């Protein structure tokens, strides 16, 4: 089989995000023992859950990523105001779910016009990392410093914390390495270990993160354990979401990395058939356009970036 193209892997990452979201939403906030009692092993796109979703319906993880992707495409640049406006419009449309920190950041933007929240010890949630994929796609050819900057611009609209920033950057770089045709899981493992060296809180071999919370540390511990202890996209996502807790987000982040690594051909066809066709169509529209955007120049930094 010929190696997957960058666009195919990118599509695998974006569809992987949505599928992880849809798969995990069914068991969000459940304990592993509750999942086992109800489903045995939860491995089907079946909807339901506390949000009473239709099979293949997604939550805020995917729809915020799509809002971010459209903001990048409409602006043609890394424009924090365009992103904040897109998030504000997204919230105005009454999404099926919205996190507290996300809502607070959007309201802050509406009230002040500032596109950066003040630094807060309470902002180490996973809401910025779950939606970061469009930035990773649009900055594929950029250097690490610009990728870091781009991740922080989108994150700080709602989440301003060092652990959130580090997670967004690491996940983006892991996706980008995979898009370039990486076929060695040990390279991704090295990236995860580098994150742990900088922020020991993320040590994912210290314990299993069953019932992971929305804390970004718990989220990435679960994602990394699933990614490095399995051998396929399907196995990875099933392992991750059956931990319960914030399963739509652990599923979404695992899905974007595993989708990039294993490629579109590694995604179960039965899952793809279940995905909301409108979501799939928008992902298929955005993916090649984001890759072509090719943000990598300091000249694209928005002139009006807040520094507060």
Low-confidence stretches: 299-308
Give me the CATH superfamily of the domain at 6-58 and 126-141 and 162-296.
Answer: ADP-ribosylation/Crystallin J1
Q: Which structural class best describes the helix and strand composition?
A: mainly alpha
CATH overall fold name of the domain at 6-58 and 126-141 and 162-296: ADP-ribosylglycohydrolase fold
The CATH class of the domain at 6-58 and 126-141 and 162-296 is: Mainly Alpha
Largest sheet: none
**Percent helix among the residues?**
55-70%
| CATH architectural arrangement of the domain at 6-58 and 126-141 and 162-296 | Orthogonal Bundle
| Backbone shape | globular
Number of strands: 0
Mean pLDDT: 94
Nearest-angstrom radius of gyration?
A: 17 Å
Write up what this structure looks like.
- With 308 residues, the chain is mostly helical.
- It has a domain at 6-58 and 126-141 and 162-296: ADP-ribosylglycohydrolase fold (Orthogonal Bundle), CATH 1.10.4080.10.
- The chain is built from 14 helices and no strands.
- The protein has helices at 6-25, 32-39, 60-75, 80-92, 100-112, 133-138, 144-155, 162-179, 185-198, 216-228, 233-241, 247-262, 269-274, 277-293.
- Helix 3 (60-75) packs across helix 4 and helix 4 (80-92) packs across helix 5.
- The protein is globular.
């Amino acid at each position: 089989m010929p190696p997957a193209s960058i666009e195919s892997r990118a599509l695998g990452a974006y569809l992987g995000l949505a599928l992880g979201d849809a798969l995990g939403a069914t068991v969000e906030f459940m304990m592993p023992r509750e999942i086992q009692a109800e489903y045995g092993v939860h491995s089907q796109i079946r909807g339901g859950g506390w949000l009473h979703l239709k099979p293949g319906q997604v939550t805020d993880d995917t729809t915020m990523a799509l809002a971010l992707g459209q903001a990048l495409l409409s602006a043609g640049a890394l424009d924090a105001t365009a992103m904040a406006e897109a998030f504000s419009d997204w919230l105005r449309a009454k999404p099926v779910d919205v996190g507290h920190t996300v809502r607070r950041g959007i309201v802050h933007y509406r009230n002040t016009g500032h596109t950066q929240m003040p630094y807060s010890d309470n902002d180490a949630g996973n809401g910025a990392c779950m939606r970061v994929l469009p930035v990773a796609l649009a900055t594929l050819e950029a250097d690490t410093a610009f990728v870091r900057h781009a991740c922080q611009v989108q994150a700080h609209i709602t989440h301003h914390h060092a652990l959130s920033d580090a997670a967004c950057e690491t996940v983006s770089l892991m996706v980008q390495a995979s898009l370039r045709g990486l076929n060695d899981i040990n390279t991704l493992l090295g990236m995860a270990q580098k994150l742990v060296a900088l922020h020991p809180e993320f040590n994912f071999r210290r314990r299993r993160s069953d019932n992971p919370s929305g804390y970004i540390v718990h989220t990435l511990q679960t994602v990394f354990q699933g990614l490095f202890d399995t051998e396929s996209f399907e196995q990875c996502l099933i392992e991750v979401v059956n931990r319960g807790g914030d399963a739509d987000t652990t599923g979404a982040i695992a899905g974007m990395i595993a989708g990039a690594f294993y490629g579109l051909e590694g995604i179960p066809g039965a899952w793809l058939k279940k995905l909301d066709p409108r979501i799939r169509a928008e992902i298929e529209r955005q993916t090649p356009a984001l890759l072509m955007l090719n943000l990598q120049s300091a000249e694209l930094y928005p002139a009006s970036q807040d520094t507060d």
